[in-house]
UniProtKB/TrEMBL annotation:
Alphabetical list of Gene3D superfamilies matching this protein: 3.30.60.20, Pleckstrin-homology domain (PH domain)/Phosphotyrosine-binding domain (PTB) (2.30.29.30)
Name the UniProt record assigns to this protein: Myotubularin-related protein 13
Pfam family, one: C1_1
Species whose genome carries this gene: Diploptera punctata (Pacific beetle cockroach)
Residue intervals of the PH domain: 459-508
Domain Phorbol-ester/DAG-type: 382-413
């Protein structure tokens, strides 16, 4: 209970929930509304990279593959200069800043989504734990220093890091660029010359994945009909990642594969020297001491390993595991269309409603806070109101309610142009009639605008047809509108060819 109490007091799961809620709102706005989203949080660092990465992961199935996830990390984290050394306290200058595991938090969110959608990801959970461990291990050059410039200046950036988003068979192609001058000691992938810059963690994963299915998710089945993921962000849907709790005391952390392989080889040699080899395939596995994933692999990995051993014993050239896996025939499926049960449909509908409700709560909370701040700023000083006839329904600047202009007269501030109703104008400091100084300012401004030529063709910032689509005032005639940013006018014509406008709407 003490561990669970410490986890609750850290509010780690609440932070994961907030990230998933914000990313879910971005997913809904992009997928359902078709809107464009600009994420402006913490000057583009930390939470911005987290929300943007999670949203793209849920929207695009390509980022749920091994190659796509590499591109996502290189683009959103490495390319935009996430401060890995500073946030992880890897440098002497950042020791007093405190440990801020921003990238680890992102991987934890991916783990939570992976748990809810185990068929949607090509990589398994060990892949995420491997990245989490080596993001602070300093073994690979990928997560060293704070930006690409620092890695170039220290000579640990290679050309293939810059071209990580390309396919592997394109990396060895010389594009004729001057990358050698930009990247000191840089070399194309596959070349043996040049200094040893260290290894990229993604190149290492790619090599290991070609040898064994260590990072592969055998349940990977992409859903082409429903590519967008909408994970649940409620606290009961989240769990504490096993990465924080698991231990392997036999070899240390199970993410240094060479160390585990060396220890296993030494154990086999010791057993062979004692003459006790191959007596029994059974052994005792102790949780917390032995690495159960390595000693007791899953059935798919075990069978592929057995095939590799048999081919070697027969003197055949062993085939790669991915080739064997792709050769497997898919089981025959029923040609009849399977309909989801009523309970399944109810659960899916309820999940979509919860996801939509979370998005609406975020949008409304931001709108209410923004409206309150705007109202406090707008009406912090006394205003002078006059009666004003709205030609169209307008939102009140104080309460954000609709002012039905054609039906009822409202009020407009002479100094600032704020719009409100007659009732609310009495509560924000109406100082009476307009003074003569305001009239003088408006007159001089009108003289300034009138000094321009009346030829409307000379000042056309934007132009086009405008018409009413809604039910309210649907009978409006379609007109040709011209926006003049010089004279501050919106002129309207009966047709595009007309040289004289029927009227204009001006602002000063």
């Amino acid at each position: 209970m003490g561990t669970l109490r410490l986890i609750e007091s850290s509010e780690w799961l609440q932070q994961l929930q907030n990230i998933m809620q914000l990313a879910g709102a971005v997913v809904d706005l992009l997928d359902v509304q078709g809107s464009s989203i600009m994420i402006c949080l913490e000057e583009g660092w930390d939470i911005t990279a987290q929300v943007s990465s999670v949203a793209q992961l849920c929207l695009d199935p390509h980022y749920r593959t091994l190659d796509g996830f590499r591109i996502l990390v290189e683009k959103e984290w490495l390319g935009f200069g996430h401060r890995f050394s500073h946030r992880s306290n890897l440098a002497a200058t950042s020791q007093a800043s405190g440990f801020a595991p921003t990238f680890l938090q992102f991987l934890d969110v991916v783990h939570q989504i992976h748990k809810q959608f185990p068929l949607a990801f090509e990589f398994n959970d060990y892949y995420l734990r491997f990245l989490a461990y080596h993001s602070v291990s300093c073994r690979f050059r990928t997560f060293l220093l704070d930006c690409e410039l620092e890695r170039v200046e220290c000579g640990i950036a290679a050309v293939e890091d810059k071209r990580g988003s390309l396919a592997s068979h394109h990396k060895s192609v010389d594009t004729g660029s001057d990358d050698e001058g930009v990247y000191p000691g840089g070399r194309l992938a596959g070349s043996c010359s040049g200094p040893n810059l260290g290894q990229s963690v993604f190149d290492y994963i790619e090599k290991q994945n070609a040898r064994s299915p260590l990072f592969y998710n055998f349940m990977y089945t992409p859903d082409t009909e429903h590519p967008v993921l909408r994970p649940q962000s409620a606290l009961p849907s989240l769990e504490v990642w096993q990465y924080y709790l698991g231990e392997q005391l036999a070899h240390g952390p199970g993410y240094d594969l060479e160390v585990i392989q060396m220890d296993s080889q030494q154990e086999e040699e010791a057993e062979a020297a004692d003459g006790i080899a191959n007596k029994s395939a059974r052994r005792v596995v102790t949780m917390g001491y032995d690495d159960s994933e390595c000693i007791v692999p899953d059935a798919f990995s075990h069978l592929l390993e057995e095939i590799h051993k048999l081919e070697t014993e027969l003197g055949h050239l062993p085939q790669k595991w991915k080739v064997l896996w792709d050769k497997l025939e898919l089981p025959t499926t029923d040609s009849l269309t399977r309909h989801a049960s009523f309970s399944t449909q109810l659960v899916r509908s309820h999940g979509r409603l919860l996801h939509k409700r979370s998005t609406l709560e975020i949008l409304m909370r931001g709108k209410m806070v923004g409206a309150a701040e705007a109202a406090q700023h707008v009406y912090s000083h006394p205003h002078r109101f006059e009666r004003y006839n709205y030609t169209t329904p307008t939102y009140c600047d104080l309460c954000t309610n609709v002012l039905w202009g054609p039906v009822k007269t409202g009020m407009r501030c002479v100094d600032y142009g704020n719009l409100t109703s007659q009732t609310l104008s009495r509560n924000v400091g109406d100082n009476g009639s307009v003074s003569s100084s305001v009239t003088t300012i408006q007159t001089s401004s009108q003289q300034y605008y009138d000094q321009f030529s009346s030829n409307v063709a000379e000042n056309r910032t934007h132009e086009g047809y405008l018409y009413k689509r809604g039910a309210l005032l649907k009978g409006w005639k379609q007109r040709w509108f011209v926006l003049d940013s010089i004279k501050h006018q919106l002129r309207y014509y009966d047709a595009m060819e007309d040289s004289h406008c029927k009227g204009y709407i001006g602002w000063y």
